[in-house]
Amino acid sequence: MKTISSKRFWKFLPIFFISILNLFFAKTDFAQPEISSGSGVIINEVLANEPGSYTSLEWVELYNADSTEHDLGGWSFVCKDDTTLIPAGTTIPDNGFLILSRKLLSEPPDSISFEAWWGDGSGTWRDCPEESFPAIQVKMSLINSGGAVSLVDPETNVQTFNWDKDCGDGVSLERVSSEDNIWLCCVDSDKNTPGRKNSVSTPYSDRIKLHIQPNPFSPDGDGFEDQTVFYYTLTLESSLTIRIYDVQGRLIRTLMEDQPAVSGEISWDGKDEHGKTVRVGIYIVWAEAEGNSYSQKKTTVVVAKR
Ligand SMILES: [Ca+2]
Ligand SMILES: [Ca+2]
Ligand SMILES: [Ca+2]
Fold first, then answer.
1. Sign of CA pseudo-dihedral 158, 15, 32, 134
2. Residue 61: inside a domain, yes or no?
């Protein structure tokens, strides 16, 4: 009999350890000295595969993990043979973002630019609520399938982000947290998150929303709450698997397996794989989404007597 602790367990194990490590580091609370050089400024998100065929829509998001604003004047952004010296007065807010964009504003008749795509297209940056974060233009040309960008501070400390995968049209690569250097394809419904928190920094279990109604239910054939419905929502299209196990970890029923999904519902009549109504008790619901990234969720459903 297939159990929870087979292939899926081993797949989940590394994610579990990363989560524990993240928790550990998140709890490490040390005083941040005021450093004007911007030691906490990191490369946080890269959009190499810009939407459609517009190469000018590439950008890199920087994040300032410090609790003080920094002036990045004197810093350099390096992309292959192009180096852009960041002008004095270019600030990044505390715990905020700065976008380095290949083309910030449109020049008529060409209407494609960062401001036109992610802002209101007025021709000016920061003149509407969506344009709440600073953005500047730098020289870059990002190959979708792989490349590198570097940030050099005035003391010539260099940080480089290398990528070697293409997340798909308009989908960015996001850093999971400022404490480590793990990057995943964006799972936000917008496909990228310029000027806001990265979608992959959301806890794994929050990326699948699962609501079970009614719960408990009573599959005794009396016409009242004889089945229950699983309502699910994923953050981005992935393939979804939902399985039900008993409390000993034995597989009772596979409701769906690797089905492409964003949101929907599926019902369970309280029967096992052999068509037999299960006994009264608590059952484990195991939902997994696989796509650009991997996430799983565990919850319970109760089979009751009416
Ligand atoms: Ca590109
Ligand atoms: Ca604007
Ligand atoms: Ca972001």
1. positive
2. yes
